[in-house]
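U., I forgot to send this yesterday:
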Amino acid sequence: MKVLWVLAHPEPRSLTANLRDDGVAALRAGGHQVVQSDLYAMGWNPVVTAADFGEPDDGAFEGLPDELPTDRLDVAAASERALRAGTLAPDIRAEHDKLAWADTVVLQFPLWWHGPPAILKGWLDRVLVQGFAYGVRDPGSGRTLRYGDGGLAGRRALAVVTVGAGNGVGPRGLHGDLTEVLFGLLHGTFWYTGMRVADPVLVLGANRMDDGGYAQAARTLRARLAGLEDGPWVEYRTHESGDYDRNDELRADLAPGRSGLGVHRTDTAVTDTWPSETPASAAHQVPVR
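Result:
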């Protein structure tokens, strides 16, 4: 595998960073190639501004819709125009080079307020621009490729998430089912851009973990990475599967009487979770390996 490992944690001595080191070492020992984007260490700028897109040369947008507006910033259109004109900011282009090289993307972060840290959200905002990761059209039909297809199709994606809570995680838990908490990332980002979604690795009780607990969590991560090429996968429905009607609503005959995020999956929810006593999903409890 050719792996891009993106880390979002401000403390290089943290449990999260140490797990990254263990994971990267295990991949390299297994013969895989790894490049990294350690966002805090890089001083990554998470804020989208007009400066991301530069100024196009005369004629750079020939054949594209409408001139770049001068009175307001249309982020999606401006980003695609800059992509095609080669005027994207250098730090964005550097991340594009990494993504173009990789066949596997690992995003690792602590869960803060039921989501990733702002710096990682800003990496997604700035890097996954229109025309590169999304908004890509099929050259034959002209249809937009999304949800199972798109600019990052052919890659696999894994989220490695540390969680402070050690209890109350699951479909009936106070903190929720973390596969649903992460729906925006797994379905709305990974799957939307065409990447195949690996079951996330969730490390629970991270705030109170002792050395023995860390060793077991690291073993779980290494084992998960060793089998990553074969899944398991979060099996979401594709946009072109015929499962959705012309209004992008799930057909009435599918998952009848059900609603919510789970109806967009064709499998039973499985998540690698540590510790194994607290499953992230009601359907499967994955043992520590």
